[in-house]
Amino acid sequence: MNKDIKKTAVIGMGALGMLYASQISSAFRPDSVCFLADQKRIERYGKMTFTINGTPWSFPIKSPADAEPADLIIIAVKYNALPSALETMASAVGPDTTIISVMNGIDSESIAGKCFGDEKVLYCIAQGMDAMKFGTDLTYTRSGELCLGTRINGQENRLSALTRYFDSAKINYRTESDIVKRLWGKFMLNVGVNQTCMAYEANYAQVLAPGTLYDTLTGAMREVISIAQKEGIALTESDLESYIELLRTLSPEGVPSMRQDGIAHRPSEVEMFSGTVRRLAAKHGLSVPVNDMLYEKIKDMEASY
Fold first, then answer.
1. What are the TM regions of this chain, as residue ranges (predicted)?
2. For residue 2, which of 27, 70, 267, 295 sits 20 to 30 Å off, Cα-Cα?
């Protein structure tokens, strides 16, 4: 049986990194969780005051030189930052460390597995939260849930240890028998909602209203369904409908992470969304006009910053 999880390290002080670090810190002790960061970030963060729903928060932050092997590492960075994050966290990965990624996309687990060993990396999908972070301030009304599953045979004990830990920390989760389909479903949703909200500078209510934005949202998602089916993943129109219903439960004025990047004039994750869709479409000889349009529109927006 995998040993109990006691020490957690988080890499990425974005919305989800702060959300899960605060839940773990509240459930146990402040020193039960730390962030990992390079020295420049540590110095910058030391001058900042972070808040969560208006309450000031502080977290221990360790450099790679000071990090000890963690029982659990949560990767919560943007896609563009994943390579440097893997370098930063390397010293905190021990033989018994379990790694999960709350990143968007469909390949962060395989990238981390190649780096540290597939046996250490479980599948994890974060969904249903409306967390937004601007500057140092995180706000949310829904903490959502994590969907968990094994990636390879022999990970059942790791998954069991993780679910016991989340039970103790009161972190919402569910285990999935078909976690790969769930991963692709969340990817489908993000390809639609993240990109449509960014491209049209819109919130959830605006993209869900009938019209051009809604047609773009669902059109981009349907292109993912076509690719998924070519990849052997049984996504269907009913999956699309269930994810649209999930969107309707979020704060109408809220916006997804990509729109938050656009507001802050940060580089977006467009390569992870329509960039991936376009590459896979080319592999299968499929046409993806909605994602082509979104890719070009978002690239133009970024070039104007």
1. none
2. 27
